Amino acid sequence: MERIVIASKSWVVVCDGAKALFLQNAGDSRALNLKVMETLTQPDQPSREQGTARPGRVYQSVGGARSSMEETDLHEQAEAGFLKEVAEKLGRMARSGEIENAVLVAPPKALGILREQLGEEAAGVIRGEVAKDFVKMPVPDIEKHLAA
Fold first, then answer.
1. Domain limits, the chain
2. Domain 11-43+74-147 is in which class?
3. Average pLDDT per block of 10 residues along the chain, 148 residues long
4. 67-74: long-range contacts at Cβ-Cβ below 8 A with a sequence spacing of 24 or more?
């Protein structure tokens, strides 16, 4: 993993499709001291509570044959919606001047979705990305991994 410099007062956003930690470095680039400033969570609802409709059916253009459409993955939709929320929050923070430098840390799939959702203001404050799943780690372990 390429070493990313996280300066004092820089933000580190550690997230996946269900949880986001907004951390700020109270230390310096050599000795990280990440403080949790905010936590966002997405309730993990069972599929039966997210939707129960069967997949739709379509008729073929010729003849009377029908086939079903691909079933929508409701969990993936919920994760993408949550990551959009995280990107919008980053955008608001960037516009208000609350955040000037940030590092994104997320699993590769979530990082890709997050990148697509970032507006111009939010993308402008991103100084690095780490494609790892650190969201379930305690903050001291996140510091160790980012400092390595």
1. 11-43+74-147
2. alpha beta
3. 84 96 94 96 67 60 64 80 96 96 96 95 95 96 92
4. 74/47, 74/50
